[in-house]
Amino acid sequence: MRTVAGNEDAQQAVGGEAAVAASGGLPEPRRHPRILTAGDWFAIGAVALVCGLAAFVGMPELREFEHDIFFPLDNAYRVIEGQIPHRDFASAWGPVFYLVEAAGLEISRLRPEGLAYANALFGAVVALWMYAAARARLAPVQASTLAIYTALLITAPFALGFNPLAFCFAMGYNRFGYALLGIIVVECGFEALAPDAARARWPGRAFAAGAAWALLVFLKISYAAVAVPFLLLWLCCGSQRLRRLAALCCGAGAVTAVLLSYLRLNLAGIFRDLADAASGRSGSWHPAAMLSGPVIVECIPLLLLAALLTAGTGKRSSSDARWRQTRLWLFVLLTAAVGGFLLATNHQSMTLPLGGFAALVLVDGAMARGERPYRLAAGFLAGLCFLPLALMNAVSLGAASWERIRGPQTAAVRLTAERGRSIVFGPVESAMTSETGGPAYVEALNDGLRLIRAHAGAGEGVMTMDTLNPFNYLLNRPSPRGGMASAYYSLVFSDRAHPSAERFFGDARYVLLRKYSKTVEDAPIEEYLLDGLRRVYGPALEERFVPVEETAHWIFYRRK
Question: In this structure, are strands 463-465 and 510-514 parallel, antiparallel, or unpaired?
Answer without folding.
Answer: parallel
